[in-house]
Specification:
By secondary structure, the protein is α/β, with parallel strands linked by helices. Helices cover 37% and strands 16% of the residues.
Length: 474
């Protein structure tokens, strides 16, 4: 029998599940079966000790195979912004499938034409635009990068440490994850002109300055490297720019729901205009109302050249795409992108229904109000819990960071891991993440009700208290 050091990753996960003492029978049996017959990747097992097998959902609630109920603060990594089982989505899907059209290759349909025009109308920028639809976030990011490189005839792309833009061969180099990167050899896109810079994670300023100085320092580094003429990115004195585009999440999501200080996006816009490269905003998690506006970049009034969207537009079915300046598409031949399911009629019908619901239910206003309702509750947690170092919130885009000491900011990694597990055991699913494994992100539906918010904070308060007692904080 192989010892622990010799065991394969899936065998180690199996051991963890088989030895788990607090798993309910259906979950344990199902996860063991899952691990024996499908390769799961690591993400399911990095958020808690073990994931649940979820059987159904309604609104902001989900239930596992053993009937245990949870408040869903993951929502498919912001795919289910409207919550679960909205009857209007189901009726639209039924009507589209039975009475109209499900899919007809990559051809235009009435629903597709309608959705494209709506996306042009609701995305920032008072200029002619064009749209390219796709299925996944990675697809959309790849299309944005291909478009930028083709339109500018340049190769270099600027991205940020801590970013997540997908992990297929075309996008992995943009994603700042050493763990994921290790499985790509060679790394095609990273080997091909990808430049990474620090993100303004103000609580842990990468330059060691104050939180107030963080944005300026991050922007200055890009500016200095672009202006010198001794990097591959260009030689301004000779009128040369080799950078096709800079891609950025307006807030870093997989890194822990980190919100940069005000001025960052405008500073990037200024740099793009100064040096002549394109600005791409990846709004796959921050878009579709999660921050209280349709697009997060609207909080600063900054307009990108290309906006990437996805996840929540499909309300649980694959939908994504890009909206960009029309001029960028001018020289592209019809064979530039071909996809069997891109712009499929069912996905477009659902996308149109999602946009209808956001408008009809006034969800941008509701999301903003819910975020304001959460703020005093977060301040109370800060007062009551010494392990809570900081939090970021915009709408219902919420990240929290835990530390052993607020002065030193030493990461409380074990404590944070325990908090998400206790929350899970007590009926709240939230996500462990962060640069240092000491952040928790909360991604509820944007239409979550106040009574669900109240229960969420009750469970969270009790979980933090339990863990702080265990580690001697109180």
């Amino acid at each position: 029998m192989a010892n622990a050091a010799e065991k394969k990753p899936f065998q180690k996960l199996l051991d963890r599940i088989e030895n788990a003492e607090n798993m309910t029978p259906g979950n344990k049996a199902g996860i063991i079966d899952f691990l024996q017959h499908e390769h799961p990747g690591d993400v399911l097992f990095t958020k808690w000790d073990y994931p649940q097998i979820i059987a159904k959902g309604k609104g902001a609630r989900i239930w596992d195979v053993d009937g245990k109920e949870y408040i869903d603060c993951i929502t498919g990594m912001s795919s289910m912004n409207l919550g679960h089982s909205d009857k209007r989505i189901a009726e639209a899907m039924y009507d589209q499938y039975m009475n109209q059209l499900d899919n007809w290759f990559d051809f235009p349909t009435p629903e597709r034409l309608k959705l494209v025009n709506r996306l042009i109308d609701i995305t920032p920028g008072d200029f002619p635009k064009r749209v390219r639809l796709a299925l996944s976030g990675s697809d959309a990011v790849e299309n944005a990068i291909r478009l930028a490189r083709y339109a500018t005839k340049r190769q270099h792309i600027i991205s940020f440490y801590g970013a997540y833009h997908g992990q297929n061969s075309a996008t992995m180099g943009l994603t700042g994850s050493g763990r994921m990167t290790s499985y790509y050899n060679p790394m095609p896109s990273q080997d091909n002109c990808i430049e990474h810079f620090p993100y303004p994670y103000a609580y842990r300023n990468p330059f060691g300055g104050t939180e107030e100085e963080c944005v300026e320092q991050c922007l200055n580094l890009i500016d200095n490297m672009m202006s010198t003429g001794v990097t591959p990115m260009g030689a301004p004195d000779a009128g040369i720019c080799n950078v096709a585009a800079l891609i950025v999440e307006p807030c870093q999501s997989s890194a822990g729901y980190i919100i940069p200080p005000k001025g960052f996006l405008q500073g990037l816009r200024n740099l793009a205009d100064k040096y002549g490269f394109l600005l791409i905003f990846d709004e796959i998690q921050t878009g579709m109302g999660r921050t209280g506006k349709m697009w997060c970049c609207e909080h600063e009034g900054v307009v990108p050249d290309i906006l990437v969207f996805g996840k929540a537009l499909g309300a649980g079915i694959p939908m994504s795409g890009i909206v960009g300046k029309a001029e960028l598409f001018e020289d592209i031949d019809v064979s530039f992108i071909c996809s069997t399911y891109a712009g499929y009629a069912m996905g477009c019908r659902v996308g149109n229904t999602v946009l209808d619901i956001i408008e009809e239910d006034h969800l941008l206003e509701k999301c903003t109000a819910t975020g304001e309702y959460m703020k005093p509750k977060l301040e109370k947690l800060m007062e009551d819990h010494p392990s809570m170092g900081t939090y970021n919130i915009r709408g219902v885009y919420l990240g929290m960071e835990f530390v052993k000491d607020r002065e030193t900011k030493e990461p409380a990694k074990d404590e944070t891991h325990d908090i998400v597990n206790v929350c899970r055991d007590n009926g709240l699913l939230c996500q462990l993440n962060g640069y240092l494994g000491n952040r928790i992100s909360f991604i509820p539906p944007i239409n979550i009700e106040k009574e669900d918010v109240d229960e969420l904070f009750e469970i969270l308060d009790a979980a933090i208290t339990e863990v702080e007692k265990k580690y001697g904080y109180i």
